[in-house]
Hints:
The complex is a heterotrimer of chains A (387), B (251) and C (359).
Chain A: H1 2-5, H2 8-40, H3 71-105, H4 109-123, H5 127-139, E1 148-150, E2 153-156, E3 159-162, E4 164-165, H6 169-191, H7 203-223, E5 232-233, E6 236-238, E7 241-243, E8 246-248, H8 250-277, H9 280-288, H10 293-323, H11 327-330, H12 335-346, H13 349-378
Antiparallel strand pairs in A: 1-2, 2-3, 3-8, 4-5, 6-7
Helix pairs in contact in A: 3-4, 3-8, 3-10, 3-12, 4-8, 5-8, 6-7, 8-10, 9-10, 10-13, 12-13
Chain B: E1 9-20, E2 23-34, E3 38-42, H1 49-56, E4 64-69, E5 72-73, H2 78-87, E6 88-91, H3 103-114, H4 119-132, H5 148-160, E7 166-170, H6 178-193, E8 197-201, H7 205-211, E9 214-219, E10 222-227, H8 229-234, H9 239-249
Parallel strand pairs in B: 3-8, 3-9, 6-7, 7-8
Antiparallel strand pairs in B: 1-2, 1-4, 4-5, 9-10
Helix pairs in contact in B: 3-4, 3-5, 4-5, 5-6
Chain C: H1 12-21, H2 25-51, H3 60-66, H4 73-84, H5 92-109, H6 117-136, H7 152-178, H8 183-198, H9 201-215, H10 224-249, H11 253-261, H12 266-296, H13 308-317, H14 325-357
The structure holds adenosine-5'-triphosphate and magnesium ion (MG).
Pfam families (chain A): BPD_transp_1
Protein name (chain A): ABC transporter permease subunit
Transmembrane segments (chain A): 12-34, 71-100, 121-138, 170-191, 203-223, 252-271, 317-340, 352-371
Amino acid sequence: MFKLLRNQKVRNALLQALYVGALGALVIAGTLIARQNLAAQGITSGFDFLFKSTGWDLGFSLLPASANDPYWWYFIIGILNTLFLGSFGLALATLVGMIVGLAQTSANDLAKLLGRTYVDVFRNIPLILQVFFWYALITHLPPPRSAHEGWGMLLTSRGLYLPAPNVGGLALLAASLAVVAAIVLPIWLGRTSLLSRPLGQRFSVQLAAVAAALVCAVLFLFAGRLPDSPLLDLPSLQGLNLRGGLRIPPEFSALVVAIAIYGGSYIGEIVRGGFKAVGKGQVEAASSLGLTPWQVFTLVRLPLALRAMLPILANQYVWLMKATTMGIAVGFTDFFMITALTINHSGQTLEAIGILMAGFLAINLSLAALFNRINKAIALKGNQLRG
Amino acid sequence: MTVPTTQEIAVRVEGMSKYYGTFHALRDINLTVARGEKIVVCGPSGSGKSTMIRCINRLEEHNAGSIMVLGTELNDDVGNIDEIRREVGMVFQHFNLFPHMTVLENCVLAPMLVRKMPRAEAEATARRYLEKVRIPEQASKYPGQLSGGQQQRVAIARSLCMQPQIMLFDEPTSALDPEMISEVLDVMVTLASEGMTMICVTHEMGFARRVADRVIFMDAGEIVEEAPPEIFFTSAKSERTQLFLSQVLGH
Amino acid sequence: MEMVVVAPPASGKLEDLKRRFFATPRQAVISLLSLSVIVFLVWKLLNWAVFSAVFDASGGPDACHAASGACWSVIAARWRIIFFGLYPYEEQWRSALACVTVVAMTVLSCIPAFWTGRRIALVWGVGAAVFYVLMKGGLLGLGFVGEEMWGGLALTLFIFVTTCLVGFPLAICLALLRRSELPWISRTTGLIIDGVRSLPLISILFTFAIVLPFALPQWLQGDKLYRVILGSALFFSAYQAEIVRGGMQGVPRGQEEAAMALGLSYWHRISRILLPQAMRNALPATINQFVISFKETSLVIIVGFFEILASGNAAYGTGEWRFAYVEVYAFIAMIYFVFVFSLSRYGAFLERRMSVGER
Lengths: 387, 251, 359
Ligand SMILES: Nc1ncnc2c1ncn2[C@@H]1O[C@H](COP(=O)(O)OP(=O)(O)OP(=O)(O)O)[C@@H](O)[C@H]1O
Ligand SMILES: [Mg+2]
């Protein structure tokens, strides 16, 4: 027996069995105890609750929702809200980060100073503090009756009111697809081998495609406009309330602004790192070929820098996506808040947590897969390059 | 050749085979090394020399056959492995000194931890061996501050501090600049003359001629030739050995 | 330097300026734009924070309404709640002293002389013990103050320190398990690490604070504070484990082989050879991780703790100071900034020093 324990193979097998077994036992014991505790409170385990109506209302929702709707519908709304907030936040953060990063890599010392200061200030203040700050700022705006006005918009403590197009839902969808096409088409045209024109000489084709897509978008909007109403629905004060327009609630704007500013500081650093990784030799070689500074930037520095920063950027995006859970701090009904509310109201603790984990796993994995594809597509070919 | 008795056998390898996945790296290796014997192993790159001597102190696990070291069988028994590693020292091509410790700390570490030697005694031993490899004055430096040849001599001293009965050398001089090779070889020659059992993988044929009791030629995972140096270098039996020798000695 | 005094031409400074900022029309535009932004921001900020600000608390909120600048009197009136939360008034010196302990501890662990496993563990172990005794009392004639009374900066620091104290060893364990040669161990650990890393910290804190009590027998539940700290430590360790593992991958394989050949046991190989080198490799990333997790302690507000952000909300949230939220948030931001910025500067300094020191 003792001899057996001294055997390396036996030891290894024993160790592995012990480790995995102990962890498994822990999980199983936890689940069993939890089920017992929950059953004592009259909560039956299982996913049947997903089809019961919730009985509570949502603060923010992209799709119609009422207290009669079942839980599964709320979860879908939650995921959509998270993705919606995330994509807005990420897009704005990327924009801010690009500007800050470019300022930091600029040859101009004053611009550099500005970029550096921005990064140092906003990166070193916790995101949730920034969320609270912006939320407080917006909710301390004047009430609707003395709102700030401008360009058809209203800025009040109840949110930002934007002019909304009076257009049917389907037409709006078609129009937004056309706008997306206006962005994607020229990129695709620039890379495809279907055209006989050589790469780099397709500007006119790309321009035509963009124009066509945009015209389509406008046509869709006109075709789908609601009868007997102006094209734009302007928000206005009626009595003590605001009518019309598109309301962007304070929770959402506070989160988007905070994520854009905080994320921008991180992305700014990533962009700076990306440009720093581009070898001096490449830039010198390009200039010596007679390219103008703008050409050197767009044709050499930017493409190389993008490749260098993409993997880190992907991590940052995942992080920012997870940061949308801070919505619960200001009452934005994102995926996490819906989970928390579900647990509060239905008591289906284990199931709800399971759904939450699965949801975030799915979001993370798809983001990672997306970035892997992009990365593969743009990676420099071959491995014979020297720095 | 006289057949050594069990008492006198340092290493006995019988029918040993080793696979990396499906790649057959060592085939049916048979080798007996008597105490005090000096073996030089040579052969073309990738022939399995390193793999073979790394099997002797279980840096690699063999898949078939048996290995006896100093009368202890090298098998899955952890106690045996520990015992054998205590008695077998090894010197690597790339020195593998611990860069975060001074030369002296490198030398006293194992005796203190493994042999439970008190620090004073361990340091005295270490200084003695550093003297022997002719760098007593470098004791308080860090490995990164020494030349390659000095580092390799420290590595030899570090192994000797464990007072092993067998020393394994895996191409100890091939990472060194030519002018540093001889200082390391000199140390090895001294060691050999003091009766240490040594198995050296090396391409230094001069060293082989001077100290080896037997030279072993390996190719494609097999021992192809095994002979005393005077025979090995003049009348090798196999063609592959002759080809190899003409390449190594040719220029 | 002073020997090569060659009197610069009279216009030297001006020339230099011109070359640096006005070399091309584009540069000139960027310079002017940046300059105006800088001047505008600095002026606005100074005007708000200093020139038109009210510092004196004696005027009360009314004095602030009259002024156009910042109302720092809210800080003067409410700093105790921000720093100490609900900690009993007469005992708040203990809370302050506890905060000083943490700062001292952090400074000590930035000194290279303390960078051995034993010393750093000693500093943090003793520091945390002193902190705990000071805060909780019931010993040495100090009155007892339960955890539910802790708050403000002291609570933030407590959560941070204990998170690191529990999370760091855990991270090393996880990293070792993940690089184990035994496939089941390394795969299971990998699953745990990746699983935790893919979840948002808030959801983990929530799970530990609110869900875990269901899954634990009564006697194991413990205080909510310690469960949350455990969750935060788990999250920290999942990230830190990957950093440590990265550091381990930077240690050449030969190091461990040499240690094996010398007959060192597994634990000696890990503790004497692998970890010291791996931690050195991982140091900059580790400091970065500390910075991040310090900022993330603020998330415990969501599971209902009265840390510095929550106490800030309370400081302006009641009655008369309602309007002074900007000042309170700015003040808390400053506190975070001081901690985080100095730590991250230190990390950058180390990184530069190490990249220079490489040979
Ligand atoms: N860890 C490993 N995994 C897979 N194959 C290996 C491994 N180590 C060695 N090999 C293979 O085993 C064979 C023998 O390798 P070994 O290192 O023993 O050669 P060698 O004779 O020492 O060569 P050299 O003179 O170049 O050091 C080689 O073909 C090598 O590719
Ligand atoms: Mg070899």
